[in-house]
Structure formats: C-alpha cells, structure tokens
Amino acid sequence: MDFSEDQILELKSIAPDLSIAQDGGYTYIRIDNLQLPDYCKPNVVNALLCPSQKDGYESTLFYSAQITGTPKAGNWNRIGVRILGEYWYAISWRVNSGLRLSEMLLIHLGALR
Fold it and tell me: Where in the sequence is the domain holding 13, given as residue range(s)?
C-alpha cells in the first residue's frame, strides 16, 4: 500500500518518528515515541497504525502496551497480537473508511479520552 507524500508529511507533523513496514500482507505505519495524554499510563508508547481493513475494522491502532488511567476503560479486544516480531494491543474502536492517515490516528487516539 502506497501513501501520498502529503499524507505522510501531515502524519509526521503529529508523530514525527515513523516508518512503514509490511507483515502478513498488511502495511503498517510504525510510530515510535507516540506522546499520549498525561493521564495515560504509560504516556509514551510505540504504536502501529494499520490503515486498511483488518479483523473486521476499517483501520486499527495497535499500542506497545495496554494503556491505563484513561477516563473510561477501553475494550482491549486484541491483546498480545504478534506483528513485526513484537506484541501489540488494540482497543475495539471503529472509524470510518476513506480518512486521511492523520485523521485515522487522531480518531483512534480518541478512544483514550
């Protein structure tokens, strides 16, 4: 999956430390040192954005750890999923299709509010 340069630059304005990788037929955008709100524990994590349909979701944001301390507990329905040789965690959170990468990321982060 290819992304336009303007979408990558827009995403880098939110999460500057990113790279693109493939695993199991899916394209992932790895975001290192993603800053989360102060109330999140931990409040800095690595993340994987899967911008394509997977497991019944239009897109998914995987975290390197389960996040606690959020105002409402998320439904962590994917725990310890192995992607790119690491274990990842995701909240059940639906977003619309057809979004830009930055919009996807911001909407997924809304699950932590």
Answer: 5-112
